[in-house]
Each structure stands twice: as structure tokens, then as C-alpha cells.
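Sample entry copied in:
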Amino acid sequence: MLINKVYAAESEGLGLAEMAGLTGDQEVHYNFLQSFWDYFQADMISSIPITVCSILVIAVLIERMFFYNRNSCDIAFLLNNLQAQLEKSDLDGARNIAAQARSITGEVAEEGIRLLAVQKEDFSKAYDITVNIVTRKLQQYLPILGTVGAIAPFLGLFGTVSGVIKALWRMSLGGAGGSMELVGEISNALIATGYGLAIAIIAVIFNNVFNNIVKRYEDDFLLLKLLFMSFMEVNFFEGGFNAAAGGASAGYSDEYEDDEDIDDSSYPDFLQ
């Protein structure tokens, strides 16, 4: 029947656009925002969870960007200055330089210098404990991005499937006005998949970016450890630190000889 109508319309000089009611004077514009709002209202079972995921992703992005930017540090400059002070066996001067860095790398360096004086034998183990504590702080909230990147596409697919099921069910009951209305409902249902994929792509990209930043911090901590251990091998076994500059390191040893005399304020922020 439809083919006969098309042939009849063509024989009368009418095209498919005229049959559908779309004349040359009438333009149809797709309103994505309106379609998105229709989807959001029609399928809140999927739209609300995806929206919550998007809010979490945005919050983590803003917080981590500010955190990493606030703790940025020129590791080459810091290493050169620390090396100059350690070559003179000046632990106090090295610790002041680490404190002036005003970053989480500087805090690790400051703690490493303290450990040089009080943990000569177990320096490596004590330093690794400090690095593990700091690494956890650097990785904070990143699992949220990984989780959202994994589940957001499935939430969007669930919304699309439920939307298509509703559209077909309405058509089976005669609630839909026709095939064009059915296509419109299916089109709105597909928005759910696109919504979930968009959030997942953003989450995965920034999760990889932030993990690479954490990896660079870990490399910086390893460079600091190698610097400390190289001077520890040269100076500690030869008694250089204990005999240099009027016993500058001896003051560190006496200060931290008894655990009861340790002042918590001397620790970096992440260890207090």
C-alpha cells in the first residue's frame, strides 16, 4: 500500500518531502537540549546515576588539578641545591632548602634529610614508608575516575535499552502515533548511550593523565632517595656527617635520640 501511494504521489508530481508534510518553506531544526531534557525526564533511572557520575568526575578533576598545581616543584633545581648542601655535610642547610620548596616533594626531601640523621641503618626502609604514605595522598580520589570510566557506558546502554523497550511497548499498545514518533523516541533513548560514553571518555582520559603525574612524582622520590643514599654511603661510613661543621648532624642525633623528645611540629604535614 505504501509503495502504491509513493508511485501515485510521484505520478502526480509530489516528492517524498511533500508526502511527509515537509515543504520547501518549512525547515526542521534538531534541538539537542530539548531532546536531552526529554530523555532526562523520561528515563531518570539511568539519567540520574550518569549525572551523579558526571558531577563526581568534575569535582575530582578540579580538586586534583589544584592539588597537583599547588605541589609542583622543579626537581632538578631542588636536587642541585640539596647536593650542594650535602657535599658540605650541612644537614640543616639541606633541610631549609627542602622546606623552601613548599611542595609535597619538598616535604619528602625534608623527611628524608631527617631520616639521614636518625635512621642511618634502616634509612631505605624508613624512606620507602614515607614515600608510600605520600603516594596514597597523590592517588587520592583517582579510583573514582577509574570506576566512573568503567560503569558509565553500561549505565548509558541500560538507558538506551530501557528507552527502546518503552517505545516498542507503547507502539504495541497503539499509544504511538506512527513509525516517525517511534523513531523519535528511539532517538531520544540513544542519547543515554552518548551521555554515558562522553562521561566515561573524560574520566578515562584524566585518570590516565593523573596517574602519569603520580608516576612522575614517584620518579622524583626515587631520585631523592638515590641522592641521599649516595651521600650516606660516602659520609656516614667515613664519619663525615658526624665530624663536619662542628657536629651539625650530631645535633640531629641528640635531638631525636629519645622518642619522648620528638616534636611533632618538626614533621612534614603529611606525617603529623
In short: The mean pLDDT is 78. The chain is about 75% helix and 0% strand.
